[in-house]
Amino acid sequence: MKDLIEEIRACKRCELHETATQKVFGKGSQTPKILFIGEAPGAKEDETGVPFIGPSGKLLSKWIEYLGYNEDEYAVVNLLKCRPPANADPTVEQLESCREWLDRQIDILNPDVIFLVGRFAAQEVAGVGGSITQYAGRVIEKDGRKYVPIAHPSYYLRHGGKGWEGPLDDAKKQLENLELRDFVANANKFNKQIKELTLATQEGPEKKIQEYVPIHVHTTFSITDSATRLDEIAKFAKLQGFEALAITDHGTVGGWVEFQNACDAEGIKPLLGIEFYLVDSYSKDTKERYHVVVIAKGEKGIKSIFKMNDLSHKEFYYRSRLSIEDFFSMAENVVVTSACTSGLVSAHILKDNPLAVEEYTQALKDKFGDDFYIELQPHDFDLQEKTNPVLLELARRFDIRLVVTTDTHYILNDGKEAHNALKAISYRKKMGEAGFSIDTNYIPDAKEMVELFEKVGVGSSTVKEAMVNTRAIAAKCNARLERYENALPKVKK
Ligand SMILES: [Zn+2]
Ligand SMILES: [Zn+2]
């Protein structure tokens, strides 16, 4: 850093060095976790050689503390090292000639995350145009670095020093999720290494560690839609090397207790979820039901699902039903996926209603943020063929992470027969008349999952990334049902 400072001190690339009192390099740690990039020195900075002093500096200190960093974990530098006369905006030429210094500072400081303070910093470093307040707090990943644009402290000070918590909260949440993603990716690599090591050193059968988690799973509690017994599926998951398993029955949480017990018995992590039926309104004329998969993250998520489940049964008409409006207002602390071809987004793709597709995608992303995932399924039938490419495109355009599932209704592919029998009963048809079941609603291992998707034209790198995301969901869903030994109230004798 010392050599760099000498070089910057000698810089005469633009005319600013003629009027500036001195170069303002930066302040803070030499090995910061968080780096703030401001714009240009003001009069005080020019005088003292220190960036971000005065009220703006005070607010910045507050931010650092609010984000959970210590005084020795941050650093501040500016886009421009010299003060433009009369606090003029930096020109393109000035930014260009000073850019090399900034890039080299970033390389040396190598922070975990960079906050771009003010619109010039956001534009210059992350290429984000438009009003900074629109992007404030949104984490942008570029060339392996994480950037967060945020309005200048002076902007918030002009507005009574208020309003900065929201963007910082947003950023904090996203950064935590990214950390989790990186952790899972590393854990995955680690698992693979362990697996190879074990294989190399151990004789006998390979100990499987699956690279994904089944997060969309129906059981006997999806009445006449699955013959999968809870104890069987938990045992199967354990034998196949799945670290966790979800339960997402149609319109009911009835299987949760037994499911949690079955998973506990096998030592795998239970993920408590449901596949709700959503309707446009509770009117009996409303024919169409849209599916959505919802998994509780924590205790609040469990309570939220219980409340929605209660209401959906009060509004029962052929099936338990929850209005789209109530779902959006009541769901919290949950992971949500776009579900099957009857999902809220997919159903509108199939109806050729791109406006509704975009609106629902945006609404789900706005409401659930990084806890909303687009779900791809590998079924080889025309509806899926139509939805998958659009879902992939939406995921890219709206920056939503993907997950893969098989919408499991039976454990192994030969379970299809039993599923068909149940479907025939449900639709009051004879076996053979009712070719309802598709071949791919079973639980494949990770390798098979990739192959199934390859057959329907979804590439292996996409599938592998989506599999990692299912493990990230498993990592962040820690909801458990409490067991009360004695839940009765105490009564005076
Ligand atoms: Zn479904
Ligand atoms: Zn389903």
Mean pLDDT: 90
Counted beta strands: 13
- Give a short account of the largest sheet: 7 strands, mixed
List low-confidence stretches: 201-205
Structural features, described:
With 493 residues, this protein is an alpha/beta fold. Helix content is 45%, strand content 13%. It has 19 helices and 13 strands. α10 (230-240) packs parallel to α11 and α14 packs across α16. The longest helix is centred in the middle third of the chain and has 37 residues, at 165-201. It starts with a helix and ends in a 17-residue tail after the last helix. It binds zinc ion (2 copies). The site of one zinc ion (ZN) has 5 residues, from loops.
Give a short summary of the structure.
By secondary structure, the chain is an alpha/beta fold.
Structural topology:
Layout (H helix, E strand, L loop, with lengths): L1 H8 L6 H4 L7 E2 L5 E5 L4 H6 L6 H12 L7 E5 L13 H18 L3 E5 L1 H8 L5 H4 L4 E3 L2 E6 L2 H6 L6 H37 L28 H11 L3 E7 L5 H11 L2 E11 L10 E7 L2 H16 L7 E2 H7 L3 E4 L6 H7 L3 H15 L3 E5 L5 H16 L4 E3 L11 H11 L19 H10 L4 H17 L17
Parallel strand pairs: 2-3, 2-4, 4-6, 7-8, 8-10, 11-12, 12-13
Antiparallel strand pairs: 1-3, 5-6, 8-9, 9-11
Helix pairs in contact: 9-19, 10-11, 14-15, 14-16, 18-19
The structure holds zinc ion (ZN) (2 copies).
One zinc ion binds next to loops.
Name the descriptors.
493 residues, alpha/beta, 7-stranded mixed β-sheet, 19 helices, 13% strand, binds zinc ion
